[in-house]
Design brief:
Number of strands: 13
Shape: extended
Largest sheet: 6 strands, mixed
Number of helices: 11
Order of helices and strands: HHEEHHHEEEEHEHEHEEEEHEHH
Oligomer: single chain
């Protein structure tokens, strides 16, 4: 006896067609609801509380492609192609275009000589066919590596073969309990008045690099910017401070060393710039021995997240004979003077953000952010048991 009608099995192409139809519409509906809540007075744009979590992809865990391995193999292949060109007497620099031209020339020469390509057991290949097949193999692998780098994009160092959009990253809830890398996504949300008002899914592993595009996307979707941004220590960087300042958004980002700076161990490290006295008249730091650390040089560099930074390097004016050298300086060379490096722009931005979060309003925001933002992820992962994209 049949107790129920068997459910219809939807063909794969029907499911794919439905997915293509609804793709993008869910996010549009979400932001329509967010704007409706704002119109009803349930939410506002005084402050946006940002937070992120990593959720595993549906891809296989052992389908990784690493940028370092691809670039290393490509470099070896370029050397192999150059050596083959030199051995075969082919002029010019080895590239995909020159390889294609050389292969086409060899095939034309084989046709001209009436050489029939040999395949299978018992057949003997001519040297011309062997050379042609060698260049074909090099070209095939070259195009494969370039395709992998193109799929990976400039901002990621890995991707999964079964889900190219996912990046391999470490998950806190690792089922193997050994810190295994797994393909996943960095999910960002924005909360205001206990409502989720913004969502974003990124392939970048670090919250630092997702902050600027996420805040920009929120301003575009909402039609206006938040007056202030509250985030934890994982979002602190000079680039994000600069971005908030350029957009006129007040920073309530928790400094990365906020908790560590309150410990006794931190305060006992006399070699740190934060624990040295500052001489405003001489614009220099004064160490525990009373020696001044004066300006020596500038260190300019361009970090991965963009922009240009200029650090100020100060050197101790005294040489040797310091009673606190062991605690102050890590260098084993006793004649090497103590040096400290700092970015004045970053220090000023961090101090301003620290002043904001230390205020009564900032303390209230920090408490609410930890409850509202982290609570959302707790409900998603623990209550709804959603730990992997399906």
């Amino acid at each position: 006896m049949a107790f129920g009608r068997r459910a219809r099995a939807w063909p794969h192409h029907d499911l794919q067609l439905q997915a293509e139809r609804v793709q993008g519409s869910d996010r549009g509906l979400f932001y329509q609801l967010a704007l409706y809540l704002e119109g009803a007075g349930a939410t506002g744009h005084e402050v946006g509380m940002a937070g992120g979590t990593k959720i595993e992809s549906f891809a296989g865990r052992h389908t990784f492609v690493w940028r370092g391995a691809v670039e290393k193999n490509l470099a070896k292949l370029v050397e192999k192609a150059a050596a083959a060109f030199k051995r075969l007497g082919i002029g010019g620099e080895a590239s995909t275009g020159s390889l294609g031209s050389a292969i086409g020339g060899m095939k034309a020469k084989m046709a001209e000589l009436g050489v029939v390509p040999a395949h299978g057991r018992g057949s003997r290949k001519t040297q011309l066919q062997r050379d042609c097949e060698e260049l074909e193999g090099i070209l095939e692998r070259w195009l494969k590596y370039e395709s992998q780098l193109l799929t990976m994009g400039p901002g990621c160092n890995s991707y999964s073969k079964t889900d190219p959009d996912a990046t391999f990253m470490r998950m806190k809830d690792d089922h193997m309990r050994n810190g295994q890398l797994k393909p996943g996504y960095n999910v960002q949300i924005c909360v205001n008045s206990e409502f989720i008002t913004g969502i974003g899914v990124y392939a970048g592993r670090s919250d630092v690099n997702t902050f600027e595009p996420f805040v920009s996307a929120l301003a575009e979707k909402h039609g206006q910017k938040y007056e202030a941004a509250s985030a934890d220590a994982g979002y602190e960087s000079l680039a994000n401070y600069r971005f908030l300042d350029s957009e006129g958004i007040a920073s309530f980002i928790k400094p990365a060393n906020y908790e560590h700076a309150k410990t006794r161990k931190f305060k006992n490290q006399i070699g740190r710039r934060e624990n040295m006295a500052y001489d405003e008249a001489g614009d220099c730091c004064v160490c525990a021995s009373g020696r001044r650390l004066v300006f020596d040089r500038e260190h300019a560099f361009a970090p991965k997240n963009g922009g240009r930074q200029v650090n100020k390097v100060c050197r101790c004016e005294g040489f040797g004979g310091c009673a606190h050298r062991q605690k102050c300086c890590k260098s084993k060379d006793v004649d090497m003077p103590k040096e400290i490096e700092a970015n004045l722009e970053f220090i000023a931005s961090r101090d301003a953000s620290l002043s904001n979060i230390a205020s009564q309003y900032g303390i209230k925001l920090r408490v609410n952010r930890s409850i509202q933002v982290e609570g959302v992820f707790g409900v998603i992962k623990e209550d709804h048991c959603f730990r992997r994209f399906l």
